[in-house]
Design brief:
Two copies of one chain form a homodimer.
Chain A: E1 5-8, H1 11-27, H2 39-48, E2 52-57, E3 63-71, E4 80-87, H3 96-110, E5 115-122, H4 126-134, E6 138-149, E7 153-163
Parallel strand pairs in A: 4-5
Antiparallel strand pairs in A: 1-2, 2-3, 3-4, 5-7, 6-7
Chain lengths: 164, 164
């Protein structure tokens, strides 16, 4: 998808993003986040705790998605980062997630991270698993029955990793 | 090891434990925690953020170690718990870690957790890996070069898991 614009996510951006965030966690299909999380907790989780959070918009300024980037661990584990990506419902299937992941890898290298790790890619989210694999991530572990999916019940999660 | 006494960890217990906690993180061999963490941050990490924290003492009241138990994720991942265990330097090799892990599994079941997951067992910590395996944990993933070990440089970490 061409002509995407990445900017550090503001509180105003997050306010626009919030209905999509809420819908994604309420679906209980992809994120291990409480489905009844409130706005302030979500804002803290997505925009304040991470090292960086970006909004992605089209040329008209329409918000398409957002991602955060943070250290996955501290101290001797601090060279590995972790990201989470969400695409707005109206912007799916247009390469927004791919563009966000590629952007996040550039930012991670600029921040001197040496690897990126996803801790909980829900195994039934095959579109995401395939996309991350296309982008060079490997499944380095699978935790059985670690996610209680709204439709499928207990499903596995994958740990995915890429050296940067 | 017989006659161990487990009690919810108090701030006074943590104050006694602090030199051992500090030595363990400064060693940079087993925990992905900043080696320059201060007391209050360590207390928050070990005793306030977790769902439960236990001190283990001998019959004379001497502190031998401590562990925390918390949910490893939220929402659809909230049925899996995570623990961290530390044994005081003077109490190593006496079965304290084994006793703590067994105790933590009982507490986890009481709290209705369905599984226990360790996210970052340092691969060079072969004593711990073997002990967790003896206690029924499986290595379900290995993340390459995710821990910068003080003596060995970049080493792998294992994700370990046990259904409860």
């Amino acid at each position: 998808m061409s002509s995407l614009v990445f900017t550090p996510m503001t509180r105003a951006d997050f306010t626009l993003f919030w209905p999509d965030f809420k819908a994604i966690v309420e679906a209980r299909e992809t994120y291990a986040i409480d489905s009844d999380i409130d706005f302030e907790s979500a804002y803290a989780l997505w925009c304040q705790a991470p090292k960086a959070t970006f909004a992605v918009k089209d040329q008209d300024g329409t918000l398409l998605g957002a991602y955060y980037l943070k250290a996955n661990a501290q101290g001797p584990g601090g060279h590995v980062c972790n990201c989470g990506y969400m695409v707005n419902a109206t912007a799916r299937g247009k390469g927004v997630a791919r563009a966000m992941c590629e952007h996040s890898q550039r930012i991670a290298r600029e921040l001197d991270f040496k690897a990126m790790q996803f801790n909980a890619v829900v195994a039934t989210n095959t579109v995401a698993v395939a996309l991350w694999q296309q982008l060079g991530f490997a499944i380095v572990g699978t935790v059985p029955a670690a996610f209680c999916h709204a439709r499928h019940g207990l499903v596995d999660i994958h740990v995915m990793h890429k050296a940067l």
